[in-house]
Design goal:
Blueprint (H helix, E strand, L loop, with lengths): L6 H10 L5 E2 H8 L3 H13 L3 E3 L6 E4 L1 H18 L3 H14 L3 H4 L1
Antiparallel strand pairs: 1-3, 2-3
Helix pairs in contact: 1-2
């Protein structure tokens, strides 16, 4: 286990798996990491049981139930601390854009 892991790197790896199981190469490219750094972080995430080999798809990695629960907890905490969640913020922006006057209404 690394002494001082970069939480942003861990976040990029975990978010890279939120869409479902991925091959190692796909995850590495999605996270934008050098192979050596990627493997070091991946080993730690597997050791912590945050990431596991997919039981359904050979050779792919997926989030464990523990990670899904932790991700949900962190998302809810972020929403409580900083206000609207990303999804709520997006829907709020869409609502505003629908009610905003169009350029033709202004002339």
């Amino acid at each position: 286990m690394m002494d001082h892991p970069d939480l942003f790197v861990i976040g990029r790896l975990l978010v890279g798996l939120t869409g479902g199981p991925r091959r190692r190469t796909q995850l590495q490219q999605r996270a934008g990491l050098h192979c050596t750094v990627f493997l070091r972080y991946l080993d730690d995430l597997v050791e912590l049981r945050l990431v596991a080999a997919s039981a359904e798809v050979d050779g792919r990695l997926e989030l464990t139930p523990k990670t899904v629960d932790a991700y949900r907890f962190l998302s809810e905490g972020r929403a409580r601390i900083f206000g609207l969640s990303h999804a709520s913020r997006r829907s709020e922006e869409e609502r505003r854009s629908r009610t905003a006057p169009s350029p033709s209404d202004l002339s």
